[in-house]
Amino acid sequence: MPMYKGMNCGEHALQNGEVDPALKALEERQDEVLRRLYELKATVDGLAKTVTTPDADLDASTLSRGPAESVFRATADLDSLLGKDLGALRDIVINANPAHPPLSLLVLHALLCQRYQVLSSVHVHSSVSAVPPPLLSCLGPRHIDSYARQRFQLGFTLIWKDVSKLQMKFNTQSMYPIEGEANVARFLFRLLSAEPQDPVLATQMDCWIDTAVFQLAEGGSKERAVTLRSLNSALGRSPWLLGQEFSLADIVCACCVLRAGQTTSAPANVQRWLQSCQNLGHFDCVYPLLQ
């Protein structure tokens, strides 16, 4: 009797190069189990972030917003920028004082929403008695898929809290906080992969950011007047502060000018530049907070 007649049907099927239906069903079940495990990991990570971030007492909304078209064209990949973290949502948690809304970070949030799937939320800490409604909706309308964290690439949580200086944590369990709106803005801008490659331009960008913070936002009337004249001179030579390209310098400086209430008294080139910033659409989230 030939040997193959003693084999079962499954072994015969495998000899003919076919896939055992039982094995195929087992692989499909394994794939489904792995998929569910990744979803469960994302959910657990979200709960862990809530537990390890006791700053949020009231969930005002879960939001996602972005302008129609981004001004930055460079490609960005979170895995290459931040390292791979399979199944977990990368969370950015920012504590900010409602008396000093971080306007530049709101603009950067809008730009990030153009590049990534961003799950954004606004919370209120118990140290703050009341927050104006525009601050509760400053990141845009509620996202319909906010319950499914695994569908997003980036989490952006803004907590209104009584803090003396703005703080940001990217990994709430192991990362020391980044302090100051300008430093957080630099971190967020890097996620857009839009930093100048020319070291001279990169240095100029940092100088403009520091000037805006220390002289426009924190300086007196004399410092603001000097800075406005410097801005006017630079913008008389090019449409943007670094030349032909819109950059983080424009975002931070424009927000500081707007916050200082210098729009109507600003020199002509500065007013034209502010109008150009507004025309981009990325600053739409800022203007309701200035009223």
From TrEMBL:
Instruction: Write the record's keywords in alphabetical order, separated by commas.
Output: Cytoplasm, Nucleus, Protein biosynthesis
Q: Where is the Glutathione S-transferase C-terminal domain?
A: 221-277
Q: Domain named AIMP2 thioredoxin-like: which ranges?
A: 88-179
Query: Organism's domain of life?
Result: Eukaryota
Report if keyword Repressor is assigned: no
Could you tell me the Gene Ontology terms of the biological process aspect for this record?
Answer: translation
A GO cellular component annotation here is: cytosol
Its subcellular locations are: Cytoplasm, Cytosol; Nucleus
Principal localization? Answer: cytoplasm
* Matches recorded under InterPro entries: AIMP2 (IPR042360), AIMP2_thioredoxin (IPR041503), Glutathione-S-Trfase_C_sf (IPR036282), GST_C (IPR004046)
Write down a Pfam family by its short name: Thioredoxin_16
Q: What PANTHER family does the entry give?
A: AMINOACYL TRNA SYNTHASE COMPLEX-INTERACTING MULTIFUNCTIONAL PROTEIN, AMINOACYL TRNA SYNTHASE COMPLEX-INTERACTING MULTIFUNCTIONAL PROTEIN 2
Give the protein name, as stated in the record: Aminoacyl tRNA synthase complex-interacting multifunctional protein 2-like
What organism is recorded for this protein? Answer: Cyprinus carpio (Common carp)
